[in-house]
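Progress report, Aim 2. The chain analyzed during this reporting quarter is listed below.
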Amino acid sequence: MLMLTSVLTTGALALTACGSRGDSGSKSSSGTTVVIGVDAPLTGQNSATGLGIQYGAQLAVDDANKNKTVPGVTFKITALDDKALPATGQQNATTLVADPNVLGVVGPLNSGVAQSMQQVFNTANLVEISPSNTSVPLTQGPAWASGKKTRPYKTYFRTATTDALQGAYAADYAYNTLKKKKAYIVDDKQPYGAGLAGIFSEQFTKLGGKVIGTDHVNTGDTDFSTLSTKVKNSGADMLYYGGQYDESSLLTKQLKAAGAQIPLFGGDGMYSDTYITNAGSASAGDLATSVGAPVDTLPAAQQFIKDYKAAGYKGDYQTYGGYSYDATTAIIKAVGKTVTNGKIPSDARSKIVDAVQASNFDGITGKVSFDQYGDTTNKQLTAYEVKSGKWVAVKSGTYSGS
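Predicted structure tokens for the chain:
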């Protein structure tokens, strides 16, 4: 468990000691300390990817401090565990907002958790950058599919591209490359999973494929025997799953055990080494799409990977670790634009939001900039297949279809 209480207490003591509440950030003889919050599932469900987000942010802060990216400012991370629960995420958002040293937040992992946090951060003018949320309405509003795009919150950004592209990219790969014609579609009823499955279904059908069955599961479910039998008897040549690796790794094991020797295809919530570990040999041939290009292949990310491994950090860096590093760096650079002669103004949070909106730099995962909705301009996506017990990139590019 992380020693969160000690971190928060230290921040509170530093603020009290400085005696100045007019400025954000705590001051000491060594300069000003700025806290960047991280919210993700650090224990339990989805913790492998959540820890990757935490430590990706930590490495960005370590590099900024080592390189004195913002002279006179020392950055620290406060990481809070949302356990993949929206209510807990909202509580964490309130906690982070209440600490005046916090000038930006990285996270959360889950789109459903993000929904519960956005209003809290927006009211406080506190910037939030998720390295992993892909649900389209978070940035483009509930009527986005009809062409009525409206940005709900100016403080919310993301370095991951949306399900509108990911779901369509997966459908195109399934139909045109894998030559799959009959899909059974299952989702976990969460904003991310249901949204992604819906977009896949729409595009797969548009291409000429047939959805011959649909079903839903609950997060935390472990018995998929009845569902597996239904999928087998349907005659589907693939199962598309909208959700996370926890349930999908069990589903694919039970699906294969039921005699349905068809691939399970999912999104970035499934792209984790933990999926393969949990599913074992049943994962062979399964597929997932994820945001960006494979981080292991990016020249700019090689030092990050080396440092992550050298530190012995837990979690999966390859899923969102690089995007967390870049999200954190965007906040750090925005703080640099806000500082004047080492002093952080009382309206720093609002100014940092504007500075993040104007971001334009080369990150370790590619160009980091945001459009008018707060979405990343990096639209790269990759399809992976489990081969010999590892995720292997089989196609990488952008989706440009209709």
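The longest helix spans residues 317-338. The radius of gyration is 21 Å. These observations will guide the mutagenesis work planned for the next reporting period.
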